TrEMBL record:
Signal peptide: none
Keywords per UniProt: Glycosidase, Hydrolase
GO biological process, alphabetically ordered: carbohydrate metabolic process
Phylogenetic classification of the source organism: Eukaryota, Viridiplantae, Streptophyta, Embryophyta, Tracheophyta
The protein's name in its UniProt record: Pectate lyase superfamily protein domain-containing protein
Organism field: Ensete ventricosum
Top-rank lineage group of the source organism: Eukaryota
Pfam families: Glyco_hydro_28
Protein family per UniProt: Belongs to the glycosyl hydrolase 28 family.
Gene Ontology MF annotations: polygalacturonase activity
PANTHER family the UniProt entry points to: OS01G0618900 PROTEIN, PECTIN LYASE-RELATED
Amino acid sequence: PSSGITIRRLTRSNPFAGLAVGSEISGGVENVLAENLNIFRTIIGIHIKTNTGRGGFIRNITVSDVNLSNAGKGLRIARNVGDHPDDKYDLNALPVVDGLTIKSV
């Protein structure tokens, strides 16, 4: 589980995503604040990722005051990201996304 995460005044470039949450969320990710971010030269600025079969949750995530430049996409919320190590995962284990706030991007 991941909880109580604060990210402030971050400047970064990444070829994949400037800020990503998931896709391995079986233990849950909650209570995340990310603010005053400068993200450049990336495919996706903010990426929220889940996958069927892992369950878990993403909740109470706030992202604000983000400056994006040279980003292919500003925001992507995607399901079915990644793969599973074996065939014993539970197709009924659905992830829950709740309380997602994204503003001033």
